[in-house]
Please model this.
Amino acid sequence: MSASDRPAEASAGPSRRPRSERLRTPFFWLLAAIVLPVMNASVRWRIVDGHKLPKQGAFILVTNHYTQIDPVVTGIAMWKLGRVPRFLAKASLFRVPGLGAIMRASGQIPVERGAGRGADPLAAAGHLLAEGNAVIIYPEGTLTREPDLWPMRGRAGAVRAAVEHGIPIIPMAHWGSQGLMARYGRRISLFQRKPVQIIIGDPIDLGAVAGRMHDKTALESASAQVMHEIARLLGELRGETPPAELWDPAKHDQKETGRP
Model:
């Protein structure tokens, strides 16, 4: 990992240096000790513009989603950049013996499915954001249906939460997870190191939607802005031009959740 991708130290000064967020989360260190050796042996990581990820303070990280192993990949990237990864997760996972205990201990956030597209799933993350933590959200809400794994249309929850809490929304794109696990796959391939690339973008300007939280058109436009920026970043990693129009499952007779 390049120098620009290593967590930046707080600047020296007369005030006491803030305690690292990672030092306050011993349970994550245990998870990292288990997961990182396996993943580092299986992945050649490349992080671009890692310095753009805020080192302190609350923010929402939005990224693309195309395999079931994406949370592991994005979580490791965030950990490598000095922040603790916390996700919104299906509430049903918290009821799985063993797994539920791990998710609760690591501060993950349960979200009940079926709340509807108009609901704000990030309301459950408000206490974490208020404490200066970061939350990762996949705006698509599920694995992309786009045939070539480009981002599809997104939901408005991340945009609403960022505006309501007055915090930045940071875009990220990653590419290479499909080498570890196929879309809709359940089997992970850990043999032979696969290249995985991550790129962090600049904060997205949501000024156009401020004060218009009940304007459906404004929210949809801001959500599209977020997804287009993620697609643009992904295009940089892939060396390709993303589609001009975001994929919409409804226009292709595809289900919102599950396999299409």
Summary: The chain has six helices and seven strands. Residues 216-238 form the longest helix (23 residues). The chain has one domain: 20-246.
